[in-house]
Each structure stands twice: as C-alpha cells, then as structure tokens.
C-alpha cells in the first residue's frame, strides 16, 4: 500500500511514522483491517483502522473502528488511542472511546512500533484489567456479559 505525502514535505515525526507503517504493511497483523494514515485538520498524524475482537473474549468477532492520534512530539511522547465503535471495557472511557493502557504508556520508548501498539491494544481486549478502571472509577456495568452485549449491538458487521 502506498501512502501519499505529496501535499507537504514530511517532518521527522511523519517520516518515522511512515517508515513504521511501511514495516507494518510488510508484516500486517491478522486482527487489524484497513489501516490507513491521514492528517487531521489540526495537522496531527493519525491512523484509522478496524480491530477484530479476540476469540474467546467478550469482544469475539466484533469489528471495532479505532483512531490513533500522534502528538507533535511523537515518537518521544506516546500516542492516544480511541475506539470509534462503542465498547464496554473497564479500561476505555465509554463517552470518548479513549483507551488507557497504563503499562504501554508508563513504559513508553521511542522505539515502540505501530505493530506493538496495535498488539498491546488487542491484548487489552483479551485481558481487560478489572482492577483498574478508566479514570479510577468503578463502573459496575463494565462486566464481561455487558461487554458481550455491547459487542453484539455495536461492533458486528451490518
């Protein structure tokens, strides 16, 4: 897949991201579909795609649209990951879709690749952290059965 950057000269951040994407496209992840690069109206690099829910989880076969927004300081500062499809998950803000992966963010290193980011987010669906809710709020309805119901309602293909 080619990426059009002809509209402007890529900065160091964009070059790094595009290099990482090129590597990803050579070895794509089976649970990611339609991964695309774009620049938002504020000029931030972002990726969009579909994450397929892991087998034997409350999210099994769900199709979860996502957006990864990269700060201007990337790769020295971590990304922000947002589910665009509604998802019931203890580590995701139900209103904004912002996912919190404490381990990945707290141990952030510039060498972490797009594939690693996507794999870690997939693993978050495989093993939600029910001891640490997004924003430290305990939300009793973010249980596996409710997650399964939301997956059926919001994340199944039409």
UniProtKB/TrEMBL annotation:
CDD domains: UBCc_UEV
Signal peptide range: none
Record domain UBC core: where: 12-158
Annotated Gene3D superfamilies: Ubiquitin Conjugating Enzyme
Protein name from the UniProt record: UBC core domain-containing protein
Organism field: Adineta steineri
């Amino acid at each position: 897949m080619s990426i059009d950057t002809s509209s402007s000269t890529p900065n160091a951040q964009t070059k790094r991201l595009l290099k990482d994407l090129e590597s990803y496209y050579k070895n794509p992840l089976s649970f990611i579909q339609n991964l695309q690069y774009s620049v938002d109206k504020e000029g931030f690099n972002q990726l969009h795609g579909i994450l397929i829910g892991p087998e034997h989880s409350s999210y099994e076969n769900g199709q979860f649209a996502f957006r990864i927004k990269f700060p201007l300081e990337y790769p020295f500062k971590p990304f922000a990951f947002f589910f665009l499809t509604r998802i019931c998950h203890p580590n995701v803000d139900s209103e904004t879709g912002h996912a919190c992966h404490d381990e990945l963010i707290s141990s952030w290193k510039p060498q972490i690749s797009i594939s690693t980011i996507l794999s870690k987010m997939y693993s978050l669906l495989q093993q939600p952290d029910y001891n640490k809710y997004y924003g430290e709020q305990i939300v009793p309805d973010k249980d596996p059965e409710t997650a399964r119901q939301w997956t059926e309602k919001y994340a199944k293909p039409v």
